[in-house]
């Protein structure tokens, strides 16, 4: 394809898409549509300014390998070691999203993409009981799919977009976890470039869904040892996915284990690592039968 033809295609696309610029009033009006979903912990909600938000605005951008990414970054990524409550947060939000706004919810349905087989209906029932809502109806409002490889994961995200267009009452999309299948499918260093390009395309699609349909997108992520962490008190682990995942995330939260509160409960700590709207800070939570809860 000649350069002249490429330029004509780009010009035609620009005419269809229209101007990327908006007035401050237009941006302000759009921000009024932003939804918030509580984490179940008042301390963490306070850290986030009320909970996880749809259409979180970020000044960052995807790497240039995703040249068509014109939309804002709207993803929330939560990462941490084993047993810090990542999947429990996903379960808690699956219930919270269905509650009315006065209870910290968004009165909508949930799409849950599970890459590790950790979704448990019984946990949803227990969390629903905590908030006094019908467990079976709560499960009915969760659209669940298990992904088996990274290509299948992308197909499910695209299918979710079709559902969002057909049904306007979805308020939350969860991918638990975003990198698990990429680690399996692209294991060698020689495949890193291809992996990152595929990941960037997936993140761009997720960002577009969040922006277009005004939904909260939560991605959980695993961690790996950080051999470069030489400073005192520096984290000894880092999230998988490299810079491309961190740049694609409007909100990033690191989870870690804290001290024992009682014989049965261990305090967990959530640290807000990056946010376009909130300062770096920490919040505490515990894990119990009702999901994420106040310490």
From TrEMBL:
It comes from the Eukaryota. GO terms for cellular component: condensed nuclear chromosome. One of its GO terms (molecular function) is ATP binding. Residues 33-223, 230-295 form the RecA family profile domain. GO terms for biological process: chromosome organization involved in meiotic cell cycle; DNA recombinase assembly; DNA strand invasion; mitotic recombination; reciprocal meiotic recombination. The keyword Transmembrane helix does not apply. Signal peptide: none annotated. Keywords: ATP-binding, DNA-binding, Nucleotide-binding. Coiled coil: none annotated. Belongs to the RecA family. PANTHER family: MEIOTIC RECOMBINATION PROTEIN DMC1_LIM15 HOMOLOG, RECA/RAD51/RADA DNA STRAND-PAIRING FAMILY MEMBER. This is Uncharacterized protein. It comes from Rhizoctonia solani. The lineage of its organism: Eukaryota, Fungi, Dikarya, Basidiomycota, Agaricomycotina.
